[in-house]
Amino acid sequence: MNIRRLLAVWSAKFIGFACRLTGKQGVTLAGQIALKLDPKILTELAGEVREKVFVVCGTNGKTTTNNLLCSAIEAEKKKVVCNHTGSNMLNGVVSAFVLSAGMNGHLDADYACIEIDEASTVRILPHFKPDYMVLTNLFRDQLDRYGEIDITMNLLKDAMHMAPDMTVIVNADDALSAYLAMESGNAYVTYGISEQVFEESIVNEIREGRFCKKCGEKLVYHFYHYSQLGDYECPSCGFKRPDPDFDASNIYAGGKLAFDVEGRHITANYRGFYNIYNILAAYTVARTAEMDLKHFNDVLYRFNPQNGRMEQFEIDGTHIMLNLAKNPAGFNQNISAVMEDETKKDVIILINDNDQDGIDISWLWDVDFDRFKDADVNSITVSGIRCQDMRLRLKYVDIPSALEPDVEKAIQERIKNGTGNLYVLVNYTALYSTRNILKKLEQG
Ligand SMILES: [Zn+2]
Predict the structure, then answer these.
(1) Of the chain's two ends, which shows fewer C-beta atoms within 10 Å, N or C?
(2) Which residues form the Lipid II isoglutaminyl synthase (glutamine-hydrolyzing) subunit MurT C-terminal domain (predicted)?
(3) Whether pLDDT at 337 is above 60
């Protein structure tokens, strides 16, 4: 046995354990130390995965898609390595493998499901070559105000070239992602929704990728699902939406989600039209890897998306839904999910401007907050470091809001005096702390 590897695995486990004791998230530190002690550790442990290695990339939906894929594979009685916590840069990925290894330094796993930050793919793929990469979508992120989506696309292209035998599983309804997969030279499999689900009038968001990546011409859309996702075609060069290999039909997105694919009826007990894409992505990649997925509906029934992605809490008779909203596309989909709920509700919006959130919060002006007017909203409370800006943004569309910079106080106040149905929408750096507050309150 390689002494370096043993030392790396034991050190990482010790750090992980020590951090849990002190209530810190030590995931990335554990990975960093392990990689220092044994630079080959990621390559070797990933090589010990007996069946397939999956990676999930894309601006929105990575964590939900990856965790769902992991649950679906576990339901087939297989052992899976997964970075559940969403630590999706190099050290976080190393950590997922190292902390799953046994004290003998070896991995006992049939599959790996790893979400990877798009920009980190070129740092991670030199260590191992995945069998499949899921690409969920490419939206402008909170930091990507100035053409950074092109930089992200170039990095992903390089990553695809690093693993020429990797099959790309791609959202056909996103012209940016589909273009990337089609041009990569890698084998690709597509999923999408070919039927029109929404009336044109309710999808009025600002959109990315309206121009053909191949020739620069403005794309023509037959319809939109949301943001730039829809049925598109280039009038100039012939680039168009590929016919999906896995096509979801009979879409229902109300209090719950349902659709048909491959003659199967899929149902899930939670909200958000965008989650149909996440479910479909996980389904497509697992089916492409020749899994039966006989238990897929049971998995969806039990699945509580973790880490503040539509995560549900029950506190003193109030039903609370926590959701991450970190960019315009994500936020608009959050508002749609709130609107799918026809009962009266309270909403708390928490906006921070720490480094990871992007210190420029002008993206708030690209979110269609005026739609809250039609959503049977009892109250909106704004919180976080930039609560004043958020309040101004709402005021601009004539929506009054209460101000409470301390989110714990805001939550407690709404539990005491609210409708019993509370949505908490937070951006990135607020997610972990808000989730801890909700967990603590839930335990009483
Ligand atoms: Zn074109």
Answers:
(1) C
(2) 324-431
(3) yes
